[in-house]
Amino acid sequence: MRKLKQYIRLILLSTILCITACEEVEVVYDHNQQLATDIAIIDAYLEEQNISAQIHPSGMRYTVLEEGEAGDLQADDGLLYYASVRRLDEEPFETYNSGLIDEFSMINGLILDPFFKEHYWSCFHEASKFMRKNGRIRMYVPSGLSLRDLPQTRFVEDNNEFIGVIMPGKTVFVVEAIIRDQN
After folding, report:
1. Distance between alpha carbon 154 and the CA centroid of its chain, in Å?
2. Which stretches of the chain are DSSP H helices?
3. With bands split at pLDDT 50, 70 and 90, how would you rate the model's confidence at 153?
4. Structure confidence at residue 103 as a pLDDT band (50, 70, 90)
5. Residue by residue, what is the 3-state secondary structure of 75-125?
6. Taking residues 51-58, what's their average pLDDT?
C-alpha cells in the first residue's frame, strides 16, 4: 500500500511538472543572433575552402567572377537576374515529388525599390548596388538576406516540368548570379 501511494505521488508530481514545463513559449526570430551565426558559418567555410571574399555591410560575402560593363544599374533598365542556388552545407534540396536536387536555377526581375528588398531575397537588392550589367558574382548569403526563418517553396523548371523545391529557413545559401537584358 505504501508503494502504491508513492507511485501515485510520483505520477501526480510528474503530471504537474509536465504541465508547467509545457507552457507555450513564443519563439522570436532574432535577426542579429542569426546573422552572427550565419556569418561564422560562412567565414569558416571560406577559410576552409581558401576563398578570399569581399564583405558587404549586410553580412553577405561575395566574390566577383566577371566585372561586367561599367555604369550603375537603373530600375528601368529591363534587366533580369539569372541565378543558381545551392546550400552552403551542400545538403540537397527536397522536392514535392520526394526527389532531391543539388541546386536549381531561378530568374528574378531586377527591381530597385523597397518592395523588392522587403518581399524577395534581399541579397539581390543588396547586390544590385555594386553589380554591373553582364557581371557575375558568387554570393554567400546569410539567411536574413534570403528566407529569414521561414521555409519557402520555389517552383522551378527541370526537364520541361515544374517542380517544387523546398528551401528550409535559417539556411545559408550560395547564389551565383549574373545580370542580363531580358532579350
Report:
1. 12
2. 2-21, 31-48, 114-119, 122-127
3. confident
4. confident
5. CCCCEEEEEEEEECCCCCEEECCCCEECEEEEEEECCCCHHHHHHCCHHHH
6. 92
- For residue 166, the surrounding DSSP H or E stretch is strand 161-167
The total number of structural domains in the chain stands at 1
Q: Report if residue 143 sits inside a domain.
A: yes
Cell of 78: 529591363
Is residue 77 in a domain?
yes
In this structure, is residue 13 part of a structural domain? Answer: no
Claim: this prediction has a pTM higher than 0.85: no
Gap between the Cα atoms of 104 and 1, Å rounded: 67
Domain with 123, as residue range(s), is 31-181
pLDDT at 36: 92
Q: Closest by alpha carbon to 60, among 152, 151, 163, 175?
A: 175
Q: What's the CATH number where 101 sits?
A: 3.10.50.40
The four Cα atoms 176, 102, 140, 36 give a dihedral, to 10 degrees, of: 160
Residue 3 lies in a domain: no
pLDDT digits (tens, 9 = 90+) for 80-99: 778 888 888 888 888 877 67
Cell numbers placing 72: 550603375
Contact between 165 and 93 under an 8 Å Cβ cutoff? The reply is: yes
